[in-house]
Amino acid sequence: MRKLSVLLITAALSLSLPLHASEQRKICVFDLIGNVGPVMGAMRDWQVAALEWGVDVELVPFTNEAIAAEDLKAGKCDAALITGIRSRLFNSYAGTLDSVGGVPTMDHLRILLQVLSTPGASSEKLNNGTYEIMGIAPAGGAYIFVNDRTINSLAKAAGKKVAVLDYDKTQAKLVAQVGATPVASDITNFSTKFNNGIVDVIAAPLIAYNALELYKGLSPDGGIINYPLVQLTIQLVARSDRFDKDVAQKSRKYFYDNLDRILEALNKEAAAVDDKWWVEIPNEDKQEYELMMQQARLQMRDEGFYSAEMLTLERKVRCKLAPSNAECVNPVE
Question: What is the arithmetic mean of pLDDT over 309-330?
Answer without folding.
Answer: 96
